[in-house]
Protein backbone atom coordinates (compact mmCIF):
# COMPACT_ATOMS: atom_id res chain seq x y z
CA UNK A 1 0.00 0.00 0.00
CA UNK A 2 2.78 2.45 0.76
CA UNK A 3 2.14 5.67 2.58
CA UNK A 4 -1.60 5.94 2.51
CA UNK A 5 -1.74 8.69 5.13
CA UNK A 6 1.07 10.96 6.20
CA UNK A 7 0.61 10.87 9.96
CA UNK A 8 -1.57 9.40 12.67
CA UNK A 9 -3.72 12.46 13.16
CA UNK A 10 -4.17 13.07 9.47
CA UNK A 11 -4.62 9.40 8.74
CA UNK A 12 -7.32 8.86 11.32
CA UNK A 13 -9.36 11.71 9.87
CA UNK A 14 -8.51 10.99 6.27
CA UNK A 15 -10.81 10.12 3.47
CA UNK A 16 -8.52 9.37 0.58
CA UNK A 17 -8.00 10.97 -2.77
CA UNK A 18 -10.14 10.88 -5.82
CA UNK A 19 -9.57 9.15 -9.10
CA UNK A 20 -6.19 9.72 -10.61
CA UNK A 21 -4.77 11.22 -7.43
CA UNK A 22 -2.60 9.83 -4.69
CA UNK A 23 -4.08 9.30 -1.26
CA UNK A 24 -4.86 12.66 0.26
CA UNK A 25 -5.21 12.98 4.00
CA UNK A 26 -7.06 16.27 3.69
CA UNK A 27 -9.75 15.18 1.28
CA UNK A 28 -13.45 15.21 1.98
CA UNK A 29 -15.48 12.16 2.98
CA UNK A 30 -17.74 12.69 -0.02
CA UNK A 31 -15.02 11.74 -2.49
CA UNK A 32 -16.99 11.43 -5.70
CA UNK A 33 -19.14 14.46 -4.98
CA UNK A 34 -16.08 16.42 -3.91
CA UNK A 35 -14.33 15.42 -7.12
CA UNK A 36 -17.43 16.41 -9.05
CA UNK A 37 -17.66 19.80 -7.34
CA UNK A 38 -13.96 20.53 -7.47
CA UNK A 39 -13.67 19.84 -11.17
CA UNK A 40 -13.38 23.66 -11.25
CA UNK A 41 -15.33 23.91 -14.46
CA UNK A 42 -12.93 21.64 -16.33
CA UNK A 43 -15.49 19.77 -18.42
CA UNK A 44 -15.09 18.42 -21.93
CA UNK A 45 -17.37 20.11 -24.44
CA UNK A 46 -18.15 18.54 -27.80
CA UNK A 47 -18.97 20.69 -30.85
CA UNK A 48 -21.26 20.19 -33.82
CA UNK A 49 -21.02 22.93 -36.45
CA UNK A 50 -23.33 23.84 -39.32
CA UNK A 51 -23.36 26.64 -41.90
CA UNK A 52 -26.45 28.25 -43.40
CA UNK A 53 -26.93 30.77 -46.22
CA UNK A 54 -23.27 30.91 -47.00
CA UNK A 55 -21.61 30.15 -50.28
CA UNK A 56 -24.44 31.03 -52.63
CA UNK A 57 -23.55 34.70 -52.14
CA UNK A 58 -20.07 34.28 -53.53
CA UNK A 59 -19.73 31.10 -55.57
CA UNK A 60 -21.12 30.22 -58.94
CA UNK A 61 -20.57 26.54 -58.22
CA UNK A 62 -20.84 24.53 -55.03
CA UNK A 63 -17.80 24.19 -52.83
CA UNK A 64 -16.18 21.35 -50.89
CA UNK A 65 -15.97 23.01 -47.46
CA UNK A 66 -13.88 21.90 -44.48
CA UNK A 67 -13.91 23.56 -41.05
CA UNK A 68 -10.78 24.10 -38.95
CA UNK A 69 -11.16 24.98 -35.27
CA UNK A 70 -8.52 27.05 -33.47
CA UNK A 71 -8.10 28.30 -29.91
CA UNK A 72 -6.15 31.41 -28.99
CA UNK A 73 -3.22 30.85 -26.65
CA UNK A 74 -2.24 33.33 -23.95
CA UNK A 75 0.20 34.99 -26.33
CA UNK A 76 -2.54 35.41 -28.95
CA UNK A 77 -1.24 32.68 -31.25
CA UNK A 78 -3.79 30.36 -32.82
CA UNK A 79 -3.49 26.70 -31.85
CA UNK A 80 -5.30 24.22 -34.08
CA UNK A 81 -7.82 22.08 -32.22
CA UNK A 82 -8.99 19.92 -35.09
CA UNK A 83 -10.48 19.65 -38.55
CA UNK A 84 -13.77 18.33 -39.85
CA UNK A 85 -14.30 16.10 -42.81
CA UNK A 86 -14.75 17.62 -46.28
CA UNK A 87 -18.40 17.98 -47.31
CA UNK A 88 -18.59 17.59 -51.09
CA UNK A 89 -20.59 20.00 -53.24
CA UNK A 90 -22.41 21.82 -50.48
CA UNK A 91 -23.54 25.39 -49.94
CA UNK A 92 -24.98 24.66 -46.48
CA UNK A 93 -22.77 22.01 -44.91
CA UNK A 94 -23.34 20.25 -41.61
CA UNK A 95 -20.16 18.55 -40.49
CA UNK A 96 -20.27 15.22 -38.68
CA UNK A 97 -16.82 15.41 -37.11
CA UNK A 98 -17.03 16.68 -33.56
CA UNK A 99 -14.30 18.45 -31.64
CA UNK A 100 -13.65 18.10 -27.92
CA UNK A 101 -12.39 21.10 -25.98
CA UNK A 102 -11.94 21.25 -22.23
CA UNK A 103 -14.01 24.08 -20.78
CA UNK A 104 -12.13 26.09 -18.17
CA UNK A 105 -14.27 28.54 -16.25
CA UNK A 106 -11.41 30.76 -15.09
CA UNK A 107 -9.96 31.33 -18.57
CA UNK A 108 -11.35 33.28 -21.50
CA UNK A 109 -11.14 30.65 -24.23
CA UNK A 110 -11.36 32.35 -27.61
CA UNK A 111 -12.29 30.07 -30.51
CA UNK A 112 -11.77 30.78 -34.20
CA UNK A 113 -13.66 28.78 -36.83
CA UNK A 114 -12.22 28.94 -40.36
CA UNK A 115 -13.76 27.43 -43.48
CA UNK A 116 -11.74 26.31 -46.48
CA UNK A 117 -12.78 25.10 -49.91
CA UNK A 118 -10.71 21.95 -50.37
CA UNK A 119 -9.25 21.48 -53.83
CA UNK A 120 -8.55 17.76 -54.14
CA UNK A 121 -9.54 15.06 -56.63
CA UNK A 122 -9.81 12.47 -53.85
CA UNK A 123 -13.08 11.73 -52.07
CA UNK A 124 -11.56 10.13 -48.97
CA UNK A 125 -8.83 12.68 -48.36
CA UNK A 126 -6.97 12.67 -45.03
CA UNK A 127 -7.76 16.19 -43.84
CA UNK A 128 -4.79 16.16 -41.45
CA UNK A 129 -2.46 15.99 -44.44
CA UNK A 130 -3.98 18.98 -46.26
CA UNK A 131 -1.87 22.13 -46.47
CA UNK A 132 -4.20 24.99 -45.63
CA UNK A 133 -2.24 27.55 -47.62
CA UNK A 134 -3.07 25.52 -50.73
CA UNK A 135 -6.83 25.65 -50.04
CA UNK A 136 -9.16 28.58 -50.70
CA UNK A 137 -10.06 30.45 -47.54
CA UNK A 138 -13.80 31.13 -47.47
CA UNK A 139 -14.53 32.82 -44.15
CA UNK A 140 -14.22 32.71 -40.39
CA UNK A 141 -16.15 33.34 -37.17
CA UNK A 142 -14.95 34.00 -33.63
CA UNK A 143 -16.47 33.61 -30.17
CA UNK A 144 -15.54 32.49 -26.68
CA UNK A 145 -16.39 29.07 -25.33
CA UNK A 146 -18.27 30.67 -22.44
CA UNK A 147 -20.57 32.45 -24.89
CA UNK A 148 -21.66 29.06 -26.22
CA UNK A 149 -22.14 27.21 -22.93
CA UNK A 150 -24.14 30.06 -21.36
CA UNK A 151 -26.82 29.77 -24.04
CA UNK A 152 -29.88 27.89 -22.85
CA UNK A 153 -29.71 25.36 -25.69
CA UNK A 154 -25.89 25.62 -25.89
CA UNK A 155 -26.15 26.76 -29.51
CA UNK A 156 -24.69 30.01 -30.81
CA UNK A 157 -25.10 31.46 -34.30
CA UNK A 158 -22.21 33.60 -35.51
CA UNK A 159 -21.65 35.88 -38.48
CA UNK A 160 -19.14 34.50 -40.92
CA UNK A 161 -16.64 37.10 -42.06
CA UNK A 162 -14.83 36.85 -45.35
CA UNK A 163 -11.62 38.85 -45.60
CA UNK A 164 -11.87 41.25 -48.51
CA UNK A 165 -8.50 40.37 -49.95
CA UNK A 166 -9.55 36.72 -50.37
CA UNK A 167 -12.80 37.39 -52.28
CA UNK A 168 -12.36 36.20 -55.85
CA UNK A 169 -15.83 35.59 -57.29
CA UNK A 170 -16.55 37.14 -60.70
CA UNK A 171 -19.37 39.32 -59.36
CA UNK A 172 -17.22 40.93 -56.70
CA UNK A 173 -14.22 41.37 -58.96
CA UNK A 174 -16.42 43.34 -61.36
CA UNK A 175 -17.49 45.63 -58.54
CA UNK A 176 -14.69 45.85 -55.92
CA UNK A 177 -16.43 48.63 -54.00
CA UNK A 178 -19.30 46.25 -53.25
CA UNK A 179 -17.27 43.69 -51.31
CA UNK A 180 -19.29 42.59 -48.29
CA UNK A 181 -17.59 41.50 -45.06
CA UNK A 182 -20.33 39.22 -43.74
CA UNK A 183 -21.09 36.13 -45.75
CA UNK A 184 -23.59 33.96 -43.94
CA UNK A 185 -24.14 32.31 -40.59
CA UNK A 186 -22.30 29.58 -38.73
CA UNK A 187 -24.06 27.74 -35.90
CA UNK A 188 -22.03 26.05 -33.17
CA UNK A 189 -23.67 23.59 -30.79
CA UNK A 190 -21.97 22.28 -27.67
CA UNK A 191 -22.70 19.16 -25.65
CA UNK A 192 -21.16 18.18 -22.36
CA UNK A 193 -18.99 15.07 -22.56
CA UNK A 194 -19.75 13.27 -19.34
CA UNK A 195 -20.44 9.56 -19.00
CA UNK A 196 -22.99 9.92 -16.26
CA UNK A 197 -24.08 12.41 -13.64
CA UNK A 198 -25.27 9.61 -11.40
CA UNK A 199 -23.53 9.33 -8.03
CA UNK A 200 -23.93 6.27 -5.79
CA UNK A 201 -23.92 6.64 -2.02
CA UNK A 202 -22.69 3.61 -0.07
CA UNK A 203 -22.59 2.83 3.63
CA UNK A 204 -20.30 -0.16 4.11
CA UNK A 205 -19.87 -2.38 7.15
CA UNK A 206 -17.60 -5.29 8.02
CA UNK A 207 -18.02 -8.07 10.57
CA UNK A 208 -15.57 -10.33 12.42
CA UNK A 209 -12.39 -8.73 11.13
CA UNK A 210 -9.23 -10.68 11.89
CA UNK A 211 -7.12 -8.81 14.43
CA UNK A 212 -3.78 -7.63 13.04
CA UNK A 213 -2.47 -5.91 16.20
CA UNK A 214 -0.99 -7.97 19.06
CA UNK A 215 -2.15 -5.78 21.93
CA UNK A 216 -5.18 -3.95 20.58
CA UNK A 217 -8.03 -4.25 18.13
CA UNK A 218 -7.84 -3.08 14.52
CA UNK A 219 -8.02 0.48 13.24
CA UNK A 220 -9.73 -0.42 9.93
CA UNK A 221 -10.41 1.60 6.80
CA UNK A 222 -11.51 0.72 3.26
CA UNK A 223 -9.91 1.58 -0.07
CA UNK A 224 -12.03 1.25 -3.22
CA UNK A 225 -10.12 0.94 -6.50
CA UNK A 226 -11.09 0.47 -10.12
CA UNK A 227 -9.33 -2.01 -12.41
CA UNK A 228 -8.03 -0.58 -15.69
CA UNK A 229 -7.24 -2.56 -18.85
CA UNK A 230 -3.64 -3.19 -17.82
CA UNK A 231 -4.90 -4.83 -14.63
CA UNK A 232 -3.60 -1.98 -12.48
CA UNK A 233 -5.69 -0.92 -9.49
CA UNK A 234 -6.38 2.83 -9.34
CA UNK A 235 -7.82 4.10 -6.02
CA UNK A 236 -10.97 6.17 -6.41
CA UNK A 237 -12.26 6.38 -2.84
CA UNK A 238 -11.32 5.71 0.78
CA UNK A 239 -13.20 5.73 4.06
CA UNK A 240 -12.14 7.26 7.33
CA UNK A 241 -10.15 5.19 9.85
CA UNK A 242 -12.16 3.76 12.76
CA UNK A 243 -10.20 3.15 15.93
CA UNK A 244 -10.34 -0.18 17.84
CA UNK A 245 -13.07 -1.81 15.76
CA UNK A 246 -13.67 -5.39 14.65
CA UNK A 247 -17.21 -4.67 13.42
CA UNK A 248 -16.82 -1.23 11.79
CA UNK A 249 -19.52 0.77 10.02
CA UNK A 250 -18.04 3.63 8.05
CA UNK A 251 -19.58 6.94 7.04
CA UNK A 252 -21.07 7.29 3.58
CA UNK A 253 -18.79 7.18 0.59
CA UNK A 254 -19.77 8.41 -2.85
CA UNK A 255 -18.83 6.95 -6.22
CA UNK A 256 -19.51 8.64 -9.54
CA UNK A 257 -20.05 6.51 -12.62
CA UNK A 258 -17.52 8.66 -14.47
CA UNK A 259 -14.92 7.67 -11.89
CA UNK A 260 -15.42 3.93 -12.06
CA UNK A 261 -16.26 3.50 -15.75
CA UNK A 262 -19.70 1.87 -15.57
CA UNK A 263 -22.03 0.24 -13.11
CA UNK A 264 -20.70 -3.17 -14.18
CA UNK A 265 -17.00 -2.26 -13.99
CA UNK A 266 -15.14 -4.41 -11.45
CA UNK A 267 -14.05 -2.71 -8.23
CA UNK A 268 -11.58 -3.91 -5.61
CA UNK A 269 -12.63 -3.11 -2.03
CA UNK A 270 -9.72 -3.60 0.36
CA UNK A 271 -9.88 -3.46 4.14
CA UNK A 272 -6.67 -2.31 5.85
CA UNK A 273 -5.52 -1.94 9.42
CA UNK A 274 -4.08 1.55 9.84
CA UNK A 275 -0.45 1.94 10.95
CA UNK A 276 1.07 5.33 11.66
CA UNK A 277 4.26 4.37 9.78
CA UNK A 278 2.26 4.13 6.57
CA UNK A 279 2.71 0.36 6.20
CA UNK A 280 -0.91 -0.65 6.55
CA UNK A 281 -1.85 -4.32 6.96
CA UNK A 282 -4.26 -5.85 4.46
CA UNK A 283 -7.07 -7.53 6.42
CA UNK A 284 -8.98 -8.77 3.39
CA UNK A 285 -10.68 -7.71 0.19
CA UNK A 286 -13.51 -8.40 -2.23
CA UNK A 287 -14.04 -7.76 -5.93
CA UNK A 288 -17.48 -6.43 -6.81
CA UNK A 289 -19.08 -4.00 -9.27
CA UNK A 290 -21.59 -1.36 -8.27
CA UNK A 291 -24.30 -3.63 -9.67
CA UNK A 292 -23.05 -6.44 -7.41
CA UNK A 293 -23.02 -4.12 -4.37
CA UNK A 294 -26.60 -3.12 -5.15
CA UNK A 295 -27.61 -6.80 -5.11
CA UNK A 296 -25.84 -7.31 -1.78
CA UNK A 297 -27.79 -4.41 -0.33
CA UNK A 298 -31.09 -5.74 -1.67
CA UNK A 299 -30.45 -9.22 -0.27
CA UNK A 300 -29.11 -8.03 3.07
CA UNK A 301 -26.39 -10.66 2.81
CA UNK A 302 -22.66 -10.21 3.31
CA UNK A 303 -19.74 -11.11 1.09
CA UNK A 304 -16.78 -12.95 2.55
CA UNK A 305 -13.43 -11.21 2.33
CA UNK A 306 -10.44 -13.08 0.96
CA UNK A 307 -6.67 -12.85 1.07
CA UNK A 308 -4.36 -13.75 -1.83
CA UNK A 309 -2.11 -16.69 -1.06
CA UNK A 310 1.55 -17.15 -1.91
CA UNK A 311 0.51 -19.48 -4.73
CA UNK A 312 -0.70 -16.51 -6.82
CA UNK A 313 -3.60 -14.19 -7.43
CA UNK A 314 -5.92 -16.99 -8.54
CA UNK A 315 -5.59 -18.75 -5.19
CA UNK A 316 -7.41 -17.11 -2.33
CA UNK A 317 -7.94 -17.77 1.33
CA UNK A 318 -11.61 -17.19 2.13
CA UNK A 319 -12.05 -15.41 5.47
CA UNK A 320 -14.88 -15.42 7.99
CA UNK A 321 -14.91 -11.61 7.80
CA UNK A 322 -17.74 -10.24 5.68
CA UNK A 323 -18.56 -6.99 3.89
CA UNK A 324 -22.14 -5.66 4.09
CA UNK A 325 -23.79 -2.85 2.14
CA UNK A 326 -26.09 -1.06 4.60
CA UNK A 327 -27.04 1.66 2.12
CA UNK A 328 -27.06 1.86 -1.66
CA UNK A 329 -28.71 4.90 -3.23
CA UNK A 330 -28.27 6.74 -6.51
CA UNK A 331 -28.74 10.45 -7.18
CA UNK A 332 -28.00 12.90 -9.96
CA UNK A 333 -25.20 15.42 -9.44
CA UNK A 334 -25.65 18.30 -11.85
CA UNK A 335 -22.66 20.10 -13.33
CA UNK A 336 -21.87 23.80 -13.45
CA UNK A 337 -22.76 23.82 -17.15
CA UNK A 338 -26.17 22.28 -16.38
CA UNK A 339 -27.04 25.28 -14.23
CA UNK A 340 -25.84 27.73 -16.87
CA UNK A 341 -27.94 25.98 -19.51
CA UNK A 342 -30.87 26.10 -17.06
CA UNK A 343 -30.75 29.88 -16.91
CA UNK A 344 -28.59 30.57 -13.84
CA UNK A 345 -26.36 33.63 -14.00
CA UNK A 346 -23.31 34.91 -12.18
CA UNK A 347 -23.70 38.56 -11.16
CA UNK A 348 -20.47 40.51 -10.79
CA UNK A 349 -19.85 43.13 -8.06
CA UNK A 350 -16.69 45.04 -7.21
CA UNK A 351 -15.37 46.97 -4.20
CA UNK A 352 -12.20 49.09 -4.38
CA UNK A 353 -9.91 50.09 -1.51
CA UNK A 354 -9.45 53.88 -1.29
CA UNK A 355 -7.48 53.98 1.95
CA UNK A 356 -4.54 56.38 2.30
CA UNK A 357 -1.99 53.57 2.40
CA UNK A 358 -2.37 53.31 -1.39
CA UNK A 359 -0.42 56.57 -1.72
CA UNK A 360 -1.22 59.88 -3.36
CA UNK A 361 -2.96 59.06 -6.68
CA UNK A 362 -1.15 61.98 -8.32
CA UNK A 363 2.24 60.38 -7.73
CA UNK A 364 3.68 57.55 -9.86
CA UNK A 365 4.46 55.36 -6.82
CA UNK A 366 0.78 55.24 -5.82
CA UNK A 367 -1.19 52.06 -6.44
CA UNK A 368 -3.98 54.34 -7.70
CA UNK A 369 -1.74 56.31 -10.10
CA UNK A 370 -3.36 56.82 -13.50
CA UNK A 371 -0.58 56.49 -16.05
CA UNK A 372 -0.95 59.02 -18.89
CA UNK A 373 0.21 56.31 -21.30
CA UNK A 374 -2.94 54.36 -20.52
CA UNK A 375 -1.14 51.50 -18.83
CA UNK A 376 -3.56 50.13 -16.20
CA UNK A 377 -2.60 50.23 -12.54
CA UNK A 378 -3.02 47.18 -10.29
CA UNK A 379 -6.64 48.04 -9.46
CA UNK A 380 -7.61 48.60 -13.07
CA UNK A 381 -5.87 45.41 -14.17
CA UNK A 382 -7.68 43.34 -11.55
CA UNK A 383 -11.06 44.78 -12.58
CA UNK A 384 -10.37 44.19 -16.28
CA UNK A 385 -9.07 40.64 -15.95
CA UNK A 386 -11.71 39.35 -13.53
CA UNK A 387 -14.48 41.28 -15.23
CA UNK A 388 -13.53 39.92 -18.64
CA UNK A 389 -14.23 36.38 -17.41
CA UNK A 390 -17.35 37.04 -15.32
CA UNK A 391 -19.22 39.52 -17.54
CA UNK A 392 -20.20 36.78 -19.99
CA UNK A 393 -22.27 35.07 -17.28
CA UNK A 394 -24.31 38.23 -16.49
CA UNK A 395 -27.01 38.99 -19.05
CA UNK A 396 -27.74 42.66 -18.24
CA UNK A 397 -24.11 43.55 -17.44
CA UNK A 398 -25.15 46.07 -14.80
CA UNK A 399 -22.60 45.74 -12.03
CA UNK A 400 -22.79 47.11 -8.47
CA UNK A 401 -19.54 48.98 -7.78
CA UNK A 402 -18.43 50.42 -4.45
CA UNK A 403 -15.46 52.08 -2.84
CA UNK A 404 -14.40 51.99 0.79
CA UNK A 405 -11.99 53.78 3.12
CA UNK A 406 -12.33 57.27 1.57
CA UNK A 407 -13.77 60.64 2.53
CA UNK A 408 -16.10 62.09 -0.11
CA UNK A 409 -15.73 65.83 -0.56
CA UNK A 410 -17.20 67.65 2.49
CA UNK A 411 -18.24 64.36 4.06
CA UNK A 412 -17.12 61.83 6.69
CA UNK A 413 -15.12 58.70 5.92
CA UNK A 414 -17.28 56.11 4.18
CA UNK A 415 -16.63 52.39 4.25
CA UNK A 416 -19.10 51.68 1.44
CA UNK A 417 -19.92 54.40 -1.08
CA UNK A 418 -21.26 54.05 -4.61
CA UNK A 419 -18.38 54.29 -7.05
CA UNK A 420 -20.54 56.19 -9.54
CA UNK A 421 -21.09 59.03 -7.06
CA UNK A 422 -24.84 58.44 -6.84
CA UNK A 423 -26.67 58.47 -3.53
CA UNK A 424 -29.47 56.26 -4.79
CA UNK A 425 -28.05 53.45 -6.95
CA UNK A 426 -24.79 51.54 -7.14
CA UNK A 427 -24.86 49.92 -10.59
CA UNK A 428 -22.78 50.88 -13.60
CA UNK A 429 -22.95 49.73 -17.22
CA UNK A 430 -20.45 47.01 -18.03
CA UNK A 431 -16.73 46.83 -17.33
CA UNK A 432 -16.14 50.22 -19.06
CA UNK A 433 -18.66 51.68 -16.62
CA UNK A 434 -16.67 50.36 -13.66
CA UNK A 435 -13.47 51.80 -15.08
CA UNK A 436 -15.04 55.21 -15.66
CA UNK A 437 -16.59 55.27 -12.19
CA UNK A 438 -13.27 54.30 -10.62
CA UNK A 439 -11.40 57.07 -12.45
CA UNK A 440 -14.07 59.61 -11.52
CA UNK A 441 -14.00 58.56 -7.86
CA UNK A 442 -10.24 59.17 -7.66
CA UNK A 443 -10.91 62.83 -8.47
CA UNK A 444 -13.84 63.21 -6.09
CA UNK A 445 -12.77 61.54 -2.83
CA UNK A 446 -9.91 61.91 -0.40
CA UNK A 447 -8.12 58.71 0.55
CA UNK A 448 -8.50 57.93 4.24
CA UNK A 449 -8.97 54.73 6.28
CA UNK A 450 -9.05 52.32 8.04
CA UNK A 451 -9.54 49.16 5.93
CA UNK A 452 -12.96 47.72 6.73
CA UNK A 453 -14.56 44.92 4.70
CA UNK A 454 -17.69 44.42 6.81
CA UNK A 455 -19.88 47.15 5.22
CA UNK A 456 -19.26 46.14 1.57
CA UNK A 457 -19.75 42.45 2.35
CA UNK A 458 -23.02 43.28 4.14
CA UNK A 459 -24.21 45.33 1.12
CA UNK A 460 -23.38 42.49 -1.27
CA UNK A 461 -25.13 40.02 1.05
CA UNK A 462 -28.20 42.26 1.12
CA UNK A 463 -28.48 42.17 -2.69
CA UNK A 464 -27.93 38.39 -2.73
CA UNK A 465 -30.53 37.93 -0.01
CA UNK A 466 -33.11 39.98 -1.89
CA UNK A 467 -32.52 37.92 -5.03
CA UNK A 468 -32.92 34.71 -3.02
CA UNK A 469 -36.19 35.96 -1.51
CA UNK A 470 -37.45 36.68 -5.03
CA UNK A 471 -36.44 33.19 -6.21
CA UNK A 472 -33.96 34.64 -8.69
CA UNK A 473 -31.68 32.31 -10.64
CA UNK A 474 -28.63 34.34 -9.70
CA UNK A 475 -25.35 33.71 -7.92
CA UNK A 476 -23.34 36.76 -6.90
CA UNK A 477 -19.57 37.25 -7.03
CA UNK A 478 -18.03 40.15 -5.09
CA UNK A 479 -14.49 41.18 -6.04
CA UNK A 480 -12.67 43.12 -3.30
CA UNK A 481 -9.36 44.73 -4.28
CA UNK A 482 -7.27 45.96 -1.36
CA UNK A 483 -3.73 47.05 -0.55
CA UNK A 484 -3.72 46.17 3.13
CA UNK A 485 -4.78 43.85 5.87
CA UNK A 486 -8.35 44.22 7.07
CA UNK A 487 -8.66 45.99 10.43
CA UNK A 488 -12.17 44.82 11.30
CA UNK A 489 -11.25 41.13 11.22
CA UNK A 490 -13.95 39.86 13.58
CA UNK A 491 -16.67 41.99 11.99
CA UNK A 492 -15.55 40.69 8.61
CA UNK A 493 -15.73 37.11 9.89
CA UNK A 494 -19.23 37.75 11.23
CA UNK A 495 -20.35 39.12 7.86
CA UNK A 496 -18.78 36.21 5.98
CA UNK A 497 -20.34 33.57 8.24
CA UNK A 498 -23.74 35.17 7.73
CA UNK A 499 -23.19 35.43 3.98
CA UNK A 500 -22.17 31.76 3.70
CA UNK A 501 -25.88 30.84 3.59
CA UNK A 502 -26.48 33.09 0.59
CA UNK A 503 -25.78 32.66 -3.16
CA UNK A 504 -22.56 34.66 -2.84
CA UNK A 505 -18.82 34.15 -3.27
CA UNK A 506 -16.15 36.70 -2.41
CA UNK A 507 -12.90 37.08 -4.32
CA UNK A 508 -10.15 39.16 -2.71
CA UNK A 509 -7.07 40.44 -4.54
CA UNK A 510 -4.25 41.91 -2.47
CA UNK A 511 -2.25 44.53 -4.38
CA UNK A 512 1.02 46.18 -3.39
CA UNK A 513 3.80 44.95 -1.17
CA UNK A 514 1.95 44.46 2.12
CA UNK A 515 2.25 41.27 4.16
CA UNK A 516 -1.09 39.54 3.59
CA UNK A 517 -0.51 36.55 5.89
CA UNK A 518 -3.37 37.58 8.19
CA UNK A 519 -5.72 37.79 5.21
CA UNK A 520 -5.31 34.09 4.49
CA UNK A 521 -7.38 33.29 7.58
CA UNK A 522 -10.43 34.43 5.61
CA UNK A 523 -9.80 31.75 2.99
CA UNK A 524 -10.79 28.34 4.38
CA UNK A 525 -8.35 26.69 1.95
CA UNK A 526 -5.52 28.04 4.06
CA UNK A 527 -7.00 27.64 7.54
CA UNK A 528 -9.99 26.58 9.62
CA UNK A 529 -13.55 27.31 8.56
CA UNK A 530 -14.58 30.76 9.75
CA UNK A 531 -16.36 31.17 13.08
CA UNK A 532 -18.42 34.19 14.10
CA UNK A 533 -18.22 36.04 17.42
CA UNK A 534 -21.29 34.08 18.56
CA UNK A 535 -19.63 30.72 17.82
CA UNK A 536 -21.50 30.02 14.60
CA UNK A 537 -19.37 28.28 11.95
CA UNK A 538 -19.63 29.19 8.26
CA UNK A 539 -21.81 26.72 6.39
CA UNK A 540 -19.33 26.69 3.49
CA UNK A 541 -16.19 28.36 2.19
CA UNK A 542 -17.11 31.45 0.14
CA UNK A 543 -13.77 33.31 0.09
CA UNK A 544 -10.85 33.01 -2.29
CA UNK A 545 -7.83 35.24 -1.58
CA UNK A 546 -4.87 35.82 -3.87
CA UNK A 547 -2.00 38.31 -3.40
CA UNK A 548 -1.31 39.86 -6.79
CA UNK A 549 2.46 39.70 -6.29
CA UNK A 550 2.36 35.91 -5.80
CA UNK A 551 1.00 35.17 -9.24
CA UNK A 552 1.61 38.15 -11.49
CA UNK A 553 4.99 36.84 -12.69
CA UNK A 554 4.08 33.15 -12.75
CA UNK A 555 2.60 30.87 -15.36
CA UNK A 556 -0.84 31.01 -13.77
CA UNK A 557 -2.69 34.30 -14.15
CA UNK A 558 -4.35 36.21 -11.33
CA UNK A 559 -7.71 35.34 -12.80
CA UNK A 560 -7.00 31.61 -12.87
CA UNK A 561 -5.73 31.60 -9.30
CA UNK A 562 -8.67 33.66 -8.06
CA UNK A 563 -11.51 32.01 -9.94
CA UNK A 564 -10.31 28.43 -9.57
CA UNK A 565 -12.79 27.47 -6.85
CA UNK A 566 -15.80 29.50 -7.94
CA UNK A 567 -17.61 26.67 -9.80
CA UNK A 568 -17.21 24.35 -6.79
CA UNK A 569 -18.47 27.05 -4.41
CA UNK A 570 -21.44 27.58 -6.71
CA UNK A 571 -22.20 23.85 -6.86
CA UNK A 572 -21.79 23.39 -3.11
CA UNK A 573 -24.42 26.08 -2.53
CA UNK A 574 -26.82 24.52 -5.04
CA UNK A 575 -26.33 21.02 -3.64
CA UNK A 576 -26.77 21.96 0.02
CA UNK A 577 -30.02 23.74 -0.83
CA UNK A 578 -31.14 20.97 -3.19
CA UNK A 579 -31.55 23.47 -6.03
CA UNK A 580 -31.78 21.74 -9.39
CA UNK A 581 -31.39 23.36 -12.81
CA UNK A 582 -34.45 23.68 -14.99
CA UNK A 583 -34.45 21.57 -18.13
TrEMBL record:
Q: What is this protein called in UniProt? A: Protein BONZAI 1
